[in-house]
Design goal:
alpha/beta; eight-stranded mixed β-sheet; 11 helices; 15% strand; globular
Length: 279
């Protein structure tokens, strides 16, 4: 398995940080952004855990596929952990990317009513991941949240240190999802919940166009931009091949320089959000 070129990422890190990638609309590149961010942060000294919090299990299907006939979507995961049917040791698996582990989605369908029956429901994901935080087993945990406003989403936001939103430029509906997410973060914070700091929006375009650029300008007028991905297809290729995107690009090329700059901007946005949260 190819390894990503090692970057000086230490300046972005603290002992443990949990990042949720979230939106209330599907099809906005949420899973693509979560996988790209996680694989860009991996190194021998910076192990990363991906958490698939989406019942659709797209992240599990891609990152958890080891080339065997076993379907990773059938594996136990976060759903079983939240139901009290498994421990972290039972559900965390290795991926084909060195130093990148995965907590599959598991039985997340119908999880919200189960969480609602528990005291302090919004704290359940935070409590489930607490042993990992205490052990510093990972430098980063990156969570792919479901595209909804349900209880499981709120629990993931409360478990996070930082929240990134995603949207597709030129899509009014997905931008509405960003506004809804920002309102939910404010509501949770107003209720005294330890919700993650909002780092901004990762805006994706299928390809470069004047329309996509104009949509990005309009979005930037009311939401902070954490990163702008101009060619989603390249990022999606990395996700489908289960490779760090930096392993698929040629350093020194225009495309390689653009992708490196996009990743750096996203990570710097996360770093700034962590600094704001620590004040």
């Amino acid at each position: 398995m190819s390894q990503a070129p090692q970057q000086s990422l230490g300046r972005y890190l603290r002992p443990m940080a949990i990042v949720s990638v979230a939106t209330h609309k599907g099809g906005t590149g949420k899973t693509t952004a979560a996988f790209a961010l996680a694989t860009s942060l991996v190194s021998p000294r910076s192990p990363v855990l991906l958490v698939d919090g989406d019942p659709q299990a797209n992240l599990t299907a891609r990152a958890g596929n080891d080339g065997s006939d076993d379907d990773p979507v059938d594996l136990p995961g976060l759903g079983e952990l939240l139901r009290g049917e498994a421990t972290l040791a039972d559900v965390v698996i290795e991926t084909q990317v060195s130093n990148l582990d995965l907590l599959p989605a598991g039985a997340l369908v119908g999880i919200d009513p189960i969480l609602a029956s528990k005291p302090g429901a919004e704290m359940t994901v935070r409590q489930a991941l607490a042993p990992l935080v205490a052990s510093n087993a990972y430098k980063w945990i990156v969570m792919d949240s479901p595209p909804s406003q349900g209880l499981s989403v709120r629990a993931m936001l409360v478990a996070s240190d930082v929240v990134l939103a995603t949207t597709m430029t030129a899509s009014i509906d997905s931008s509405t999802g960003v506004a809804d997410l920002m309102a939910l973060i404010d509501a949770l914070a107003g209720a005294g919940m330890p919700v993650g700091e909002f780092a901004g929006v990762v805006a994706m375009a299928q390809k470069k166009s004047k329309r996509a650029a104009a949509s990005l300008d309009a979005l930037e007028a009311w939401a902070p931009i954490a990163g702008a991905i101009s060619e989603r297809a390249v990022w999606l290729d990395a996700e489908n091949l289960r490779e760090p995107i930096t392993a698929l690009i040629k350093p020194g090329t225009k495309q390689g320089d653009e992708i490196h700059a996009e990743l750096e901007r996203i990570k710097k946005s996360v770093s700034r959000a962590l600094k704001r949260r620590s004040k």
